Amino acid sequence: MHFDIPACDREAFSKAWRIDQAGESIVPEFLAASWRAGVVRDDVDFAERTVSYYGCKGEVYVEAYPPVD
User: Fold this and answer.
1) What whole-number distance in Å separates Cα of residue 69 and Cα of residue 67?
2) Residue 69: predicted pLDDT
3) Average pLDDT, the chain
4) Hey, how many other C-beta atoms are within 10 angstroms of the C-beta on 7?
5) Burial, 8: exposed, middle or buried (Cβ in 10 Å; 0-12, 13-18, 19+)?
6) pTM higher than 0.70 for the full model?
């Protein structure tokens, strides 16, 4: 099986992330937009309250989340 993985595009991913955080997309839409932006996996760190998004060439984009009271 062969997949064409897009190059990591931080600007495109940031746009998809902002749309998702504003509640203007659903999970499948966010995942599709993330893939088109070159994100191939993510890693959640609950202790640090961050999510790291990775491209296929080792690119990393980290988002921090505020604590919930």
Assistant:
1) 6
2) 81
3) 91
4) 11
5) buried
6) yes
Give the whole-angstrom CA distance, residue 41 versus residue 27.
14
Q: Which tokens in the block code for residue 2?
A: 């062969």
Q: 45: which 2 tokens?
A: 């760190």
Count Cβ neighbours within 10 Å for each residue of 40-67 and write b for 16 or more, e otherwise: beeeeeeeeeebebbbeeebebeeeeee
Average pLDDT score over residue span 3-21? 89
- Taking a C-beta distance cutoff of 8 angstroms, is the pair 37, 16 a contact? yes
Q: What's the pLDDT at 7? A: 84
pLDDT at res. 42? 93
The whole-angstrom separation of Cα 27 and Cα 38 is 16
